[in-house]
Amino acid sequence: MRGRFITFEGGEGTGKSSHAALLAQKLRALGVGVVLTREPGGSPGAEIIRHVLLSGAAKPLGPEAEAILFAAARDDHIRNTIMPALTRGRWVICDRFTDSTRIYQGELGGVDAKLLRALERVTVGDLKPDLTFVLDAPIEVGLSRAEKRRGDAASDRFEGESKEFHEKLRDAFRMLAMSEPNRCVLIDASVTRLEVADQIWTIVNKRLDPATAPVALEGVAS
Ligand code: Z5A
Hints:
CATH architecture: 3-Layer(aba) Sandwich
Bound molecules: ligand Z5A
Shape: globular
Radius of gyration: 17 Å
Order of helices and strands: EHEHHEHHEHHEH
Structural class: alpha/beta
Strand order of the largest sheet: 2-3-1-4-5
Distance between the termini: 17 Å
Oligomer: single chain
Largest sheet: 5 strands, parallel
């Protein structure tokens, strides 16, 4: 039986990586085989492209070229990590996926929706998350958490964008959650870690019933 596919989306510092990892831990404790992954990245080829994108090296090429690079990374990630895991019945938890492209490159970057749809058709095909958590917090909260975590390291390509950019980003993610309620759930990420984790765990149990998932036979850590 095909595994479940869960994605985390939202603005910077809203807690996507932390909660993706926490959810993976909880599912593994139930015996569910989980692959925890991220975009851009998640496979050796895609991690190389991640470095190019987040270093800002591709920014001078323009938003279309960046969109094509995100798509190339996704293609490698799906073929080498996501699909093999889902086919083995693993649950895949992915920190960002296609919604990020639609919002960062499409709505904020102004890349033509036709180009993005064509790239999605080629890379993603029919693959769609079973459940998407959209983590939402005021931008001051997210940016200050991201800044604290970063310490003295430099901002990456997107962290350095303006306050207006981050406000638009937040609005776009909130709209996404409203426009696809069957797939997306908006999570108030401004509260404590424990409260956010509880909201997520309640929804996963209600919508995907992990207690009935087949227990992974060859260990659960993959
Ligand atoms: N991008 C794109 O443009 N197009 C695409 O198609 C894709 C991506 C796939 C990837 O960066 C960048 O690529 C991203 C969009 C773009 N833009 N940026 N920047 P990334 O992977 O390096 O970073 P990110 O995805 O934006 O995530 P992030 O900034 O690393 O944050 P996060 O994962 O949402 O948060 P976190 O690391 O889990 O938490 C941040 C800190 O807050 C950390 O210290 C936590 O311990 C703390 N935290 C988390 N939750 C809480 C609560 N509830 N209370 C208090 N503290 C908390």
